[in-house]
Design goal:
Elements lengths: L4 H6 L6 H10 L1 H47 L4 H4 L4 H8 L3 H18 L3 E5 L5 E4 L17 H7 L4 E6 L6 E10 L4 E9 L2 H9 L3 E5 L5 E4 L14 H10 L14 E5 L2 E9 L6 E12 L6 E7 L1 H102 L1 H28 L2 H29 L8 E2 H11 L1 H6 L3 E5 L4 E2 L3 H18 L7 E9 L2 E8 L29 H11 L3 E5 L7 E9 L9
Parallel strand pairs: 13-15
Antiparallel strand pairs: 1-2, 1-5, 3-4, 4-5, 6-7, 6-11, 8-9, 9-10, 10-11, 12-14, 14-18, 15-16, 16-18, 17-18
Helix pairs in contact: 3-10, 5-6, 11-12, 13-15, 15-16
């Protein structure tokens, strides 16, 4: 309801409304600013701590992998000086002959295979290769002039030759160890061992380690990333480039510079941003690394370790976001606590009213519970009565089904008596004849009569057995063979079929159905008897038994070519005691019982009225999987 305008003008406006509204509008701004400041502080601290942790881990990895490089080199340092002890090498250098060269070649080949080096060769004082371990290869060093190499000059000066370079013959990089071979206190030649350091790079790749080694010229000679190999880590002036190009140490490589996008110091290390090619085709994108370096012992090389810091940065961003969210949550909790404090008084005042309402509700619940108990007792009584009625109905239905069977047997009693009287008369005649023939000594005729008597007894036994099986009580469950049920029904109706002959067309499979065998036979007897009665007055009598599968069910159609059922009577076909047969030929229970038996087995019985005439009853039952035959059948 709306208040009158005069009442609205009479109410004074509280002076606290505007300050409260202003405070609610301005409060989110400082909270947002404090949340951003808290998140940035957490991000900065987390990033610094994470990078320091990476630096500590990197120091240990740096020392470990640097020593591994030194160990890989020092493993082969003894080999050049070992050749000084080989007499065949000394004799070759003092007096070269083809025979001595071949012997030294074979010796160097075996030594190279045992040591695992790339190549071992011997140079004379002019720098020409006299013998080499790869003398059999097409790219052999035999006869090459390597006097321009720095390791040769150092070895001739009596110093250990240590040199990394790209081979002029094979274009293959390697590390050269040279030693001056002495004879009578003078150097008569140089022994050189070439080793490959590729296993180190493959080891770094397997460990997913981003590292490289730079030599004394600032050139990357080993790298886990092939794109960085033979690049300069510092700017090279023209004089240095000319000197390196003339020495052919790096063959004809351009020696481009590895240029960081961004660089800033971080303690004893530095933070670098290097371009990296995006595999998805998005072009170059910068990757930030923590770069740490360590000089190698006994060489002018430097081992460099690059540790990506993207994970640290992502973790720092997550920490910053968590800190901001935590601050926002704390602020929200404080505001909520303040609001809760304001409403506590209202809740305390409403508690008494709530208690009173609760008392009234409990009283109503008690009253309602008593009513429900009374209703439950009435329902239990009704359930007991209904169960008793269902039991009575089931018993009545079973009695009705049995009565239907007996009614069918009673209808066939005249035919059955005739069917039995003929064999009985024949039995009496054959028995009397057998006595006379036996008295005459005609044993052959007597034996033939006894065989005929045996067959007639078997025939009468089959008739009585079929009647006993058809008349016995059965239940709703079980399984039946369709072919067996059809044969049994036709056998029971054989006397009727002799008096009223008809053409039977069978088109169905011998399937297994979920119904008792006797009940299926009773349904088929009722349907076939109805068809015979319907076609009794006509000459052309045709009966079709057609079956087809429909998913997990099987449909059997019993169709005749009789006159059909008038439209006015079709709605009453399945009603009890309704019959279209004249006089006392039927009780009107056949179709009712058949439909009940089908429904009790989980199926149904329906009727169709074809346009070409006649009547078709469709029996639908659950089909069962076929049983497996024995393996020896």
């Amino acid at each position: 309801m709306q208040s009158p305008p005069s009442a609205l003008r009479a109410l004074p406006i509280p002076p606290i409304v505007k300050p409260r509204l202003l405070r609610h509008l301005l409060l989110p701004l400082p909270i947002i600013l404090l949340m951003l400041a808290c998140g940035y502080a957490a991000y900065y601290l987390s990033e610094q701590i994470g990078i320091r942790a990476l630096a500590d881990t990197g120091e240990r990895q740096l020392e470990l992998h640097a020593r591994a490089v030194e160990s890989e080199i020092s493993t082969h340092t003894y080999l050049p000086s070992l050749l000084e002890l080989e007499a065949s090498v000394t004799r070759l250098l003092v007096m070269p002959t083809e025979y001595r060269r071949e012997r030294v070649n074979v010796y160097l080949e075996g030594l190279n295979q045992r040591s695992g080096s790339r190549a071992i060769y011997v140079l004379d004082t002019n720098g020409r290769v006299l013998a080499t371990s790869n003398w059999r290869d097409a790219d052999s060093f035999q006869g090459e002039d390597l006097s321009f190499r720095a390791y040769f000059r150092d070895a001739m000066a009596g110093k250990p030759g240590r040199f990394y370079g790209v081979g002029t013959t094979t274009g293959e990089p390697g590390y050269y160890l040279a030693h001056g071979l002495r004879h009578h206190d003078r150097i008569i030649g140089v022994a050189v061992v070439k080793i490959r350091l590729d296993p180190l790079e493959r080891r770094w790749e397997r460990a997913r380690l981003e590292a490289f080694v730079s030599d004394e010229n600032g050139i990357i000679i080993l790298s886990s990333d092939p794109a960085r190999r033979l690049k300069a880590v510092r700017p090279l002036d023209e004089a240095t480039r000319t000197r390196l190009a003339s020495s052919l140490q790096y063959h004809w490589t351009r020696l481009d510079e590895l240029q960081p996008i961004d660089r800033r110091p971080f303690g004893r290390a530095e933070l670098l941003s290097l371009p990296s090619q995006d595999p998805a085709g998005g072009g170059a994108r910068p990757i930030r690394y923590l770069a740490q370096s360590l000089p190698l012992n006994d060489s002018a090389w430097t081992f460099n370790l690059l540790t990506p810091v993207q994970d640290v940065r992502r973790e720092a961003i997550s920490h910053g976001m968590l800190a901001a969210v935590a601050f926002a949550l704390l602020a929200f909790l404080l505001i909520a606590w303040n609001e809760r404090r304001k409403v506590l008084a209202t809740r305390l005042a409403a508690r008494e009213a709530l208690q009173q309402a609760n008392n009234q509700l409990e009283r109503k619940i008690a009253e309602r519970t008593a009513d429900l108990r009374a209703s439950n007792e009435r329902l239990r009584g009704q359930i007991r009565e209904r169960r008793l009625a269902e039991e009575t109905l089931r018993k009545t239905q079973d009695d009705l089904i049995q009565a239907g069977k007996l009614a069918v047997i009673g209808q066939m009693s005249t035919s059955i008596a005739h069917e039995l009287n003929q064999p009985l008369a024949a039995l009496r005649t054959l028995a009397g004849n057998s006595v006379r023939f036996l008295q005459r000594g005609n044993l052959e005729t007597t034996s033939s009569n006894l065989q005929t008597i045996n067959e007639l007894v078997d025939h009468m036994g089959r008739i009585t057995a079929s009647l006993r099986a058809f008349a016995r009580r059965s239940d709703d469950t079980g399984e039946a063979r369709l072919g067996k049920a059809v044969d049994a029904a036709l056998f029971l109706l054989h006397p009727r079929l002799e008096r009223t002959p008809l053409n039977i067309h069978r088109d169905f499979a011998d399937v297994r159905l979920a119904i008792d065998q006797t009940r299926l036979e009773q349904i088929l007897v009722n349907l076939i008897v109805n068809a015979i009665d319907a076609m009794a007055a006509q000459r052309d009598r045709q009966l079709w038994l057609e079956g087809r599968a429909d998913e997990d069910r099987y449909l059997l159609t019993v169709r005749d070519n009789g006159p059909g059922i008038p439209p006015a009577l079709r709605t009453h076909l399945f009603e009890p005691f309704f019959t279209t047969k004249p006089g006392e030929q039927g009780l009107g229970l056949g179709l009712t019982l058949s439909a009940s038996l089908a429904a009790a087995a989980g199926g149904n019985l329906s009727v169709r009225h074809p346009d070409e005439g006649g009547t078709a009853f469709v029996l639908s039952l659950q089909s069962l999987a076929p049983t497996e035959k024995p393996a020896d059948e």
